[in-house]
Amino acid sequence: MSAVEYVQDHHKEENEVDDSFEDLWVLIVDDSKMSRRYLVRVLDSLGVLNYREAKDGAEALQILKTQRFDLIITDFNMPNIDGLELVQHIRQYTDQPTVPVIVVTSEQDEEPLTSFKKQGVTAICRKPLSYNSLKQLLRHLISEPS
């Protein structure tokens, strides 16, 4: 369904919001290379030109020491440092504790998802994150006053 939505969207004339996506910096954190590639394709189709990838929370934290991001998209279940530990660290110990974080997960248990909400994540989305869902989230983030 995402491919159909993508094709339909490119035939629309309304690209005014999408143009503002090109200045966003996004950090994609997922231990699955396939999931990272999928998110890169979705972001690319939305006009997001700037992104970095990390294979787990530990690598993401190293990247966050040297670079700032407008959005972080992270998986929940990862080796070394999982998504919840990553969000906790971002909120408590980085120089950008209010950066929007989207958690993408196949987790069905509500208890860990509640923990994410308590940490102040921007959104929790089920895998796979669709083109339309991500587009809607990006529009929401861009329209919020800084």
Low-confidence stretches: 1-17
**Mean pLDDT reading:** 84
Biggest sheet layout = 5 strands, parallel
Helix coverage percent of residues?
40-55%
Number of contiguous helices: 7
The quaternary state of the protein chains shown equals single chain
**Number of self-contained structural domains:** 1
- Which architecture would the CATH scheme give at its second level? 3-Layer(aba) Sandwich
**CATH uppermost class:** Alpha Beta
CATH topology: Rossmann fold
Structural class of the secondary structure composition? alpha/beta
Shape: globular
* The CATH homology group name: Response regulator
Beta-strand content bin? 15-25%
Distance between the termini: 33 Å
Radius of gyration: 15 Å
User: Going across the major beta sheet, what is the strand order?
Assistant: 2-1-3-4-5
Could you spell the SSE succession in H and E letters?
A: HHEHEHEHEHEH
Brief summary of the model shown:
The chain is α/β, with parallel strands linked by helices. The chain contains 7 helices and 5 strands. Strands 2-1-3-4-5 form a 5-stranded parallel sheet, with helices on both faces.
Layout of secondary structure:
Layout: H1 2-9, H2 16-19, E1 25-29, H3 33-46, E2 50-54, H4 57-64, E3 71-75, H5 83-93, E4 101-105, H6 110-118, E5 123-126, H7 131-143
Parallel strand pairs: 1-2, 1-3, 3-4, 4-5
Overall description:
By secondary structure, this protein is of the alpha/beta class. It has a single domain, classed as Rossmann fold. 46% of the residues lie in helices and 16% in strands. The chain contains seven helices and five strands; from the N terminus they run ααβαβαβαβαβα. It has a five-stranded parallel beta sheet with strand order 2-1-3-4-5, with helices on both faces. The longest helix has 14 residues, at 33-46. The protein is globular, with a radius of gyration of 15 Å. Mean pLDDT is 84; it is low at 1-17.
